[in-house]
Every structure is written in structure tokens, then in C-alpha cells.
Amino acid sequence: MIKNYIKITLRNMWKYKTFTFINVVGMAVAFGAVLLLALTAFYELSYDDFHINKSNIYEVYLEEHHANDVEADAAMPVPITPALKAEFPDVVHASRYGDFGGSVLRYGNKEFNYDVRCVDQDFFKMFTFPIVKGNDQNPLSDKNDVVITEKTAKSIFGDVNPVGKLIELKINNQWKSLNISAVAADPPQNSSLDFNLLCRFEQHPDYEVAKTLWEDRFHNVFVQLPANEKQAGFEQKLKSFVHKYYAASIKQLRHDGAQSDKEGEVLRLRLIPMADVHFSPIASQSRAVSKFYPYLVLLISIFILFIACTNFINLSLGRAFTRAKEIGVRKVIGATKQQLITQFCSESLVICGVSLILGAVAAYSLMPQYKLLFNQQLSLNVLSSPLVILYFLGGFVLISLIAGGYPAWLMAIQNTSQAVKGKVVAGKANGLRNSLMVVQFALSALLIICTVITWQQLNFMRNKPLGYDKSQVVSIPIGSNIEPERALQLMRSKLAAYPDVVSVTGTDMNLGTGLDNSASTSIMTFSYKGKNVKTNWLRVDYDYVKTLGLQVVNGRDFSRTYGADTTVVLINQKMAEQLGETNPVGAIFPTDGAKLQVAGVVKDFNFKSLHQQIAPLTMVIRPTWPVNYILVKVKPANLPASMAIINKVWKDVNPRSQAESSFLDENVDRQYKKETRLSKIFITGAVIAIAISCMGLFAIVILIITQRTKEIGIRKVLGASVNSIVYLVAQDFLKLVLIAVCIASPIAWYAMNKWLQDFAYRIQIEWWVFVMAGVIAIIIAFITISFQSVKAAIANPVKSLRSE
Q1: Which of 221, 220, 214, 231 is nearest to 267 (CA)?
Q2: Measured between alpha carbons, how far is residue 124 from residues 92, 129, 207, 507 in Å?
């Protein structure tokens, strides 16, 4: 019996080659796209899933209520972790996690740049980073112990076992010998915590200064709660802890008019579940991604699959009616409903199976290009997840059964005598076909609208004046191989000989995202005339204003004519507003044990991305705060040659540098890579959706014309023109497309309006976007319909009348 089903399936596939080709290609493209997009989504959702204790691990963050807003920050003070363990003995484990900063290791005569993180003893007890060599019970039991990854061990020691060897770490410009106690497996790519070397937190360069300071915050804290402890319950317990250790901060917040939350608190310690750390904008991990992104990618994959399935079902319905006589004869000779349904389902399973194989092969072949195009990490390892397997397997079976089962059931209930004559009543089948086509084109129109709006927002961000000149400015990461101030002075003196170099300056924060992919921020709070003032602090050097083309609106710029000029600051207009001074020039800031005077006010500029409003900013020249970047302004005449000269001079100044320089305008574009990636996914999804929709529409038009061949012949004999026949065929389909656009427009407006709320500076959604999407969809549909309609309209009517 099964052999018979397969034989009939293959015969029918060969007999209806056009429809078989459209079905197989459409489903294969859909399956391939769905595999890649679903792997992307499941990979993002798999972040930190490998930790055995993940359900009980949380990151701690501070929530401050102010007069007009609420601020949340995961940066913690050094003494908080010991205090938490002392106050809450039921906390299973707690560990600090801090970036060492510019990290240089030395072994023998070789120096290495690696990512060094500072943690506590509990780190390996909380997180699942397996120890492959050495002390696997308590690898950081001693303050001078370090743990390195397998990749780092291979890089430094080759095949020699590094356990027990001494390695030197540069701490505050001094070399310190540390013992390698263990080698850990390399952190997975889908880990929010990454490192090459882990040392005890006591080795952090700022530990001794900050170990008793509750105002200085620069690292993260993770806690593991007991299995029976709930997040909300522990957050309630933390209220008394906050009142005890943050009493001064609470008092100052209330003095400044802070608005209490519904429980009457103005300062809270809260928790982020480990499963949400990768997606949290509060968590201090630079790779944080909105959880909206993987679910959107998954939704687009479902859209594409639905559109392909719609084609499959519509073609199956259409072919079912062309096979009415065959089905009628089968029923006459004794075929049951179950046998007819089984026959149709077997055909559907074969087509879906072939499509799935072709789609999987295409997805695997295109995976490297996909990862490069979308700047996306994904792994086939996620296919081992039972949830992912169920998603793909369930979807495959469901599609096969619906596409085969429904048309078979519809034909099985037809009157046998009418079916033998080839006369069947379409009835609800046409209604279903039309409904599916409306949904199909609504999804295509939705993706078109989203693509246009995303492109508009990206274009707006790239072209919006930022308040500084980002063109012809080269940013050079200094790194840890050279003393920063010395590097800056050497670059100044050497580049002075080149006429194309306009100015050279230094700063501790890059603008945009450089090739080193580093991001940092420095916020300070101090009391000014009895109120709390919070400002971003930026370490700059002479000529910073000149290099970036900033505008001084009041007072003066930093100048060597005033001596060292290290006791004055420049502020932006937002900071001036916060001070509440009519003329802030001359105001004194009592900060950091020193009094700093405002020398000038610069016009506001977007020193952060356009996701955020311009915040108060204070710029200062402080030799004790090292610069991290050198900025070089060049003339626009020959940018490639200027970049080559700068790189050559930098290599002479710092031969061991591994960081790459970049132009600031490239950095600014790079900080919107998530939006760029989203735009590419929308465009690709829209193209695939439209292509599959058109394939389906083309096939449906062929079926309709085949069914109406005699009608078209009679109309031609009676004098109908080609245009009137094309219009006759097209009008019903174009109405469906127009209805689809009307349905998609409000949905797209709502979704994209919500997305735009993530940007402090954003476009307004214009009405013409929806009109344009409708026009595009109608034009594409009309071209698709016209191709076959014109062919039928110009055919010889004699042949048309003989066709039946």
C-alpha cells in the first residue's frame, strides 16, 4: 500500500512539473531562511544557558529615584559583596566581576595583551566554566592564584602544562608574579562573561583605594540564592541593607526632591536573573541585546514559513479540483476518506521532505556568508536542544498534514457522481484561498513598511548633526603597551612635521564604537550649593575642542597660556542648566578632594549614541587620569594617505600595538550595528516573502486561467480586448492585495512606533510610507498576474474553445 502511495505521488509530481517546481523551490527557500533565522534567534536565547545554577544566579543593580526620572546602574562599590555575605549568610555564593582595564601579561621575555577579569573565590562555584587542568575544587583559594583559559594557555605555553608556573601581570605600572593554579575551558561564545585570565579581585588596580568607598562604583556583583529563595522576596530583604549602608545617599536624594516608588523607597538594590543578563540594558555587559531582537527574528521566520505554506495549501487546493475525476473514480472503486487523505498527505510529506533537505543544504552552504552579512554569531550546537528539535520537527509535520490533509478532506466530502464528471463545488475553498492570500500579502506589506521605516531611522542617525565634526578625525586606541601620556606627547611631536595633520589630542573615551569594540562611561556625583549634581566626566587634553570642532559659547577653551590648566573644567550646556547658574563660568566644583573651576561652556554635542538624550558633561585635563585614545584631525585632501602616515608614525611610537585606528565617522556608524543588522534582516525577509508570494500568486493565476480557458475564448470571440481580459483576471487578486495593505498598515505603524521609542532622537512615521508600500505590493502583484494573463489573452480562441 505504501509503495503504491509513493508511486502515485511520484507520477503526480512528474505530471504537474510546474506546480511541483514552484512548491519545492518555494518551500526549500522558506525552510532554508527559517533554519538560518531560527538558529539566530535560538542562539541569542541560549545565552548563559549552560550554567548549572543559572536559575538561582542574579546580577545586582542599583535603582535611584530622582525628581523627574529613575536611574538604574549595575556598577557596584567594592565593599558591597563582603557586606552582602555578612548580612545574608543564607546567600549561597557571591562574587565580584570587574574588568582589569588595559591588561598586559608577561612570561619570560614576551608580553601579551589579554582580557583579564577580577573575581572572588566563589566565581567557579557559581558559574559553570569547567576546570580542565589543575585545582578544580577551589582554583582561586590564594590571593596570588590565577586561572587561564585553554586558548590562552596554548598561546603562551604551547603544549607545556602551565599549572604551577608563574606569570607576571602589570598592576599600576608594576609587574607582579602570580601563580597559575588551573586551566579552564574557553568560555562559550554564548556567554555574557568572557575572559582570558581570571585573578582575585584583590589584584584589581583600584582595590586598595576603593575597598572602603561606597561612592566609587566600577564592577558587577553576582549572587547565588538558595533554591527556595525567590527574587522578589530577596529584593524585599535588601531594603534594610540599603537603609543601613546607603543612608547618606538616601538622605541626599530626598533632599533633592526624589519621588518615592510605591513602597516609599528612593533607592533600591534589585536583581537581574542570569537568563536576562544578556538582554538587559542595565547589565554592564557591552554585548547586551534587546530581547525584542531574537523574538522578532523568530517571528519573521514564521512569517516566511507561513507565506510558503499558504502557497502550498492554495496550490494543493487548486490541484485537488483539477484532479476531481481521479478522486471520483477512486471513490467509485472503493477508496475511503482515510485512504484519500493518506494519499494527499503522502504527496505533501514527500514534497516537504525534499524541500527540507534542499533548504537545509542551502542553509548550511550559505551559513558563512549569512554570518558575515548580518554580523551574527550562531552555532549548530543549539540543534541539540529538545525545544529547538520540537520546533522544527513539529513545524514540518504540521505543515505536511495541513497542506495534504485539508484538500483531501475537502475532496472526500464531495458528491461522488459529480466528482466523476469533474464537477465540484469550490465553495469555502475559494474563501480560504482568498483569506490565505490576504494574510500572505499582508505579511509581505508589513515587512516592506518595516524595512522602509528602519532604513529611514538609520539614515536619520547617520546624517543628523551631532554637534561635533566626525569627519577627517582618526581615533587610535593606545592600549597597555606604552605609558599613555608619553604616547600622546610623542605622537604630537612626530605628527607636527606633516602638513596634512591639523591637530592632535587625547581622551579617555572614544566617540562611537572603534575597532577595539570598547565602550566605557564615567559618572561622578558631587554636592553643589546643597544639591546633588551628577555629570559624565571626560578626560581630555589640549586641542580637544579644536580637533572635534566644538563651539565654546561662554568663557574659554583649555589653553597652555594658563600654565598646566589642570584645575579648570569645561562643561556643556546641559551641565550649565543643572547647576542653575545664569553664568556658570567661575563656578567651583568641590570634587575628589580638589576644587575645580569652570573655565568655559561648550555647545551641547552627542557624545553618546542617539538612543540617549544629551546628558550633563564635564571635561577636565587630569594627568592622573590616563588617556585611552589619541584623536588626530587631518585635512580632507587625501584621507587614505593621511591614515597611512598616522599608522606608520604610531607603529614607530608603539611597535607592540595590536589595536587598529579608525575614522570617527566609521565609529559612529558602527555603534548602530544592531539597527543595521535589523534593517538587513527586514530587507532580506521582505525580499524572500515577496518572492515566495509572487511564486504562489503566479501558480494560482495559472490554475484560474486553466479553469476559465473556455470563458476567455468565448470573450475573445465576442470581441474582448487583451486589456479587458487581463483586467478580468487581475481585478480580484489586486483587490485582495489592497485589502492586505490596509490590514498591514496599522499593525506596522504600531510595531515600528514602539521600536522608535528606543531612540531619544527619531523620525516621525509619514503617511506616504504606507502608500508607497501599497503601490509596491500592487505593482509586483500586477506584474506577476499580467505575465500569465497576457499569454492567455493573446492565445488563439479556437484552441481555447476546444480545450474542454
Answers
A1: 214
A2: 13, 7, 21, 36
- Cα separation, 551 vs 602, in Å, equals 5
Give the three cell numbers for residue 139.
582554583
Distance CA 170, CA 174 (A): 5
Distance CA 171, CA 160 (A): 26
Neighbours of 110 (CB within 10 A): 8
**CA-based nearest residue to 614, from 677, 550, 546:** 550
| Rounded Cα–Cα distance for residues 439 and 457 (Å) | 27
Which pLDDT belongs to residue 426?
Answer: 47
pLDDT mean over 344-371: 84
Tell me if 437 sits within 8 A of 697, measured CB to CB: yes
**Which residue, among 122, 141, 136, has the nearest Cα to 225 in the 3D structure?**
122
The phi and psi torsions of 422 (rounded to 5 degrees) equal 80, 10
DSSP secondary structure letters along 231-294: HHHHHHHHHHHHHHHSHHHHHHHHHTTPPP-TTS-SEEEEEEEGGGGGG-SSS--TT---THHH
Mean pLDDT to the nearest integer, 210-218: 85
Name the residue among 464, 382, 468 with its Cα closest to residue 760. Answer: 464
Average pLDDT over residues 722-741: 83
Across the chain, mean pLDDT equals 83
| Cα–Cα distance, 156 to 111 (Å, whole number) | 9
Rounded Cα distance, 685 and 37, in Å: 10
3-state secondary structure 608-633: CCCCCCCCCEEEECCCCCCCCEEEEE
pLDDT value, residue 427: 47
- Cell numbers 545574608 correspond to what residue? 88
Angle at which helix 324-332 crosses helix 337-373, to 10 degrees, equals 140
Distance CA 352, CA 396 (A): 7
Nearest to 437 by CA among 739, 14, 791: 739
Phi, psi of 740 (to 5 degrees): -60, -40
Burial level of 594, CB count in 10 A (0-12/13-18/19+)?
exposed
Report the Cα–Cα distance between both ends of the chain, in Å, rounded: 34
pLDDT for the residue 404? 64
- pLDDT exceeds cutoff 60 at 693: yes
Instruction: Pick the closest to residue 498 from 644, 628, 630 (CA basis).
Output: 644
**128 and 53 in contact (C-beta within 8 Å)?**
yes
- Counts of helices then strands in the chain (DSSP H, E): 24, 25
Grid coordinates in use for 675? 539597527
User: Greatest CA span in the chain, whole angstroms?
Assistant: 107
Categorize the per-residue pLDDT at 736 as very low, low, confident or very high, splitting at 50, 70 and 90.
confident
Output the pLDDT for position 417. 53
Q: What is the pLDDT of residues 405-426, one digit of tens each?
A: 666 676 666 555 554 555 554 4
C-alpha to C-alpha distance for 632 and 490, rounded to whole angstroms: 13
* Helix 337-373 × helix 386-412 angle, to 10°: 140
**pLDDT, tens digit, for every residue of 141-167?**
999 999 999 999 999 999 999 999 999
3-state helix, strand, coil in the chain (%, to 5): 50, 20, 30
For the stretch 491-521, what's the b/e string if a residue is b when 16 or more beta carbons lie within 10 angstroms of its beta carbon? bbebbeeeebbbbbbbbbbbbbbbebebbee
Is it the case that residue 80 has pLDDT exceeding 60? yes
